Every structure is written in structure tokens, then in C-alpha cells.
Amino acid sequence: MRKFFGPAGAVTRITIQSRALETNLLGDPTARTVDVYVPAGHQERGLPLLVDLVGFTGSGLSHTNWAGFRENLPERLDRLIGEGRMAPVVVAFPDCFTRLGGNQYINSAAMGAWEDFLLLEMLPAIERRFNCGGTGRRGVFGKSSGGYGAITHALRHSDMWAAAACHSGDMGFEICYLPDMPAVLRALTGTGNSIEKWWQQLEAATKHPEGSFKVINVLAMAASYDPDPAQFLGMRLPVTFDTCEIIEERWANWLRHDPVVAVETYADNLRRLKALYIDCGDKDQFNLLYGARRFTRRLKRLGVEHRYEEFSDNHTGVDYRMDESLPFLAQALAG
Predict the structure, then answer these.
(1) Domain that residue 93 falls in
(2) Based on the domain organization, do 55 and 101 belong to the same domain?
(3) Are 15 and 113 part of one and the same domain?
(4) Distance CA 3, CA 232 (A)
(5) How many CB atoms lie within 10 A of CB 190?
(6) I want to staple 332 with a disulfide (CB 3.0 to 4.6 A). Which of 219, 233, 235, 275 is the partner?
């Protein structure tokens, strides 16, 4: 729902046929849709490129949809750019939804090679078609799982990305994921501890049962961080079914992907960025505030320049924070 009635940018929908995703175990389509926003009056101008990674259960296409009582993201960009608060940029909105409900934007033997899709297939296709981006002129941003994807891509691929913004991103895994494990185990007891039976019942249901989100989320994270191709859809838990004790080898696989842990290895990559933005609500109901504090304190100790903000809100409905991050990224990439 528009709040700015100046010039409106154009959104073009394209499809990218992926070879990288052909090996996914989920049976997900390899033809992926990407919406691309170009600001009014800036066609073929060689603008910087931002890529929007959305949260779990979302799709980039949901950010370009009409929304009641609030702006969708192209409308937000129209306002920020039209009012002179933000340098003009092209923004890509990839659809990375999966059978398991979402994506962490990393390569997985179960989920598929999403890192490769984004870096090696989507970016070149967008940049050729819209004459944008290029070395030093690409940024990535996202919230929740999308924030995780943005910060992880920045950690691993500063040769590709020059700026990143992480809104309420998954980090501090022992405090954002482990607290949900008992609820997951209780849910699985109804199917004799069979992940396959539980998932098949979920997919057959006309409505997801109350409380199922925690189970879906944990199982999707398991398929992302510790996939086992020998298991149903690659899913296995990092805890025992009977006592909820951590299985050290499996949990170590999860922790390798925790930004709080990974920063110790990849800090030099973050130093190469032109801009790094991180924020989190001080009432975040998934405990992500504590992970963000741990992460940014390590950034300070490691001497990594960044901008960190805490704001008075929880995890839900905080897209308004992009009014802070997007101009910050665009300014850095335009320089």
C-alpha cells in the first residue's frame, strides 16, 4: 500500500533455470523465479545491485506483492529513493522457497546447492540482463533466515559481496535452536519418533497443526546444517530421541555454520566489506538478540568495522528497519 506517490520503479519477473539445484533431495523445481526492481528513470544506468534474502517460510516474491496497511519493498524503495534518502539501486528478489519451508542460502546435500545458485547462476543472469552490480557494487540483505544468509554470504564470499545487512539473523545456535528440541521430540513421539511419518502427515493435512512451526523449522535447519542423504529428505536431529542429549558429532556440524563461531575463521573477509549492518529487536522471541550481541562483541574484539543497532521491538513485522539498512548499503556501494 503506497505511502509515496512520486515516480514508481518497475518490477520485472524472470526465470532462471538452475543446474546447481538439480541434485536437491526434496524434488524442488530447478526453474527459479526472480523479481527485479529498477528505480524510475534509471534503466540501463549501471546501478549497484542489492539482493533480498527473505526469512523462513517466505519467498522473495512475497516482498514484491501488494500488502495492506504497509509498503511492500518496491514501494519502500520508491519512497526512499524518491525522497532522496537513498541512492538508486537495482534490487533482486529470488524465490528460494523449498519443500521444507524455506532456506538458509547455503549449499546442502539435502536442500540443494543454494549458495552456488545465488552466486554462480543468479548474479550473472541479473547483472547481464539489467546492466547492474559487478565487483564492489553488490550487496546482500535479509531478515531472520535471510539475515543469516546475508551474514553467512558476507563471511564466506566477500569476493562477491561488497556490503551486507543482517536483520535479526539466526546466530548463537545453542540459544536459538536448542531450546526448541524438547518440543520437537514431543511432537515426534506421536509417530513413533519417525521424522518421515510426521512429515508425510504434515503434507497430507489440510491445515498445519498448532505448534508445528517449531518442528518444521528445526527439521529444515537439520537438513541445512547437518544433512544426511541416507535419511528421509536428508533430515536427522542433533539430539537423542529418548533423553534429548546432544549428539556431539552432529551438533558440531551445526555449529560450523553458526556466525558466532564462523567469525573467528572468516573475520578477514568481513574486513574487506564496504559496509556491514546488523540489528536485532531487544524483545526478540527467538533469543536472537543474545546471538547478535555475542557476534558484534566478537567483531569489536577482532577489529571489524560495522554498524550495530538494537531497537525496541520483537522479531515480527520489523521491515521498517530497512529504512535504516538499505540507504546505508546503497551509499557504500555507490561510492
Answers:
(1) 10-172+258-334
(2) yes
(3) yes
(4) 47
(5) 12
(6) 275
Number of domains in the chain: 2
* CA-based nearest residue to 177, from 116, 236, 225, 221: 221
Mean pLDDT of 157-162: 98
Cβ atoms of 275 and 332 within 8 Å: the answer is: yes
Residue that is last in its domain, among 239, 255, 271: 255
Q: What is the pLDDT of residue 3?
A: 82
What's the grid cell of residue 303?
A: 577489529
Q: What pLDDT score was predicted for residue 36?
A: 98
| Together in a domain, 19 and 163 | yes
107: domain CATH number?
3.40.50.1820
**Percent of the residues in the chain that have a pLDDT greater than 70, as a whole number:** 100
Q: Which of 209, 228, 255 is the last residue of a domain?
A: 255
189: number of Cβ within 10 Å: 11
For the beta carbon of residue 331, count every other beta carbon within 10 angstroms.
Answer: 15
Grid coordinates representing 155 are 563471511
Residues 327, 235: Cα–Cα separation, whole Å: 39
What residues contact residue 117 under an 8 Å CB cut-off, 6+ apart? 16, 18, 20, 21, 32, 96
178 is a domain residue: no
Q: Does position 5 have pLDDT exceeding 90, yes or no? A: no
Show the cell assigned to 242. Answer: 529418548
| Residue 144: alpha-carbon gap to chain centroid | 6
Alpha carbon separation from 149 to 39, 81, 95, 98, 177 (Å, rounded): 25, 25, 14, 15, 16
- If one counts every other C-beta atom within 10 angstroms of the C-beta of residue 58, the result is 21
Q: Look at residue 179 and tell me if it is in a domain.
A: no
CA 61 vs CA 14, 65, 94, 250, 252: distances in Å = 11, 6, 7, 34, 34
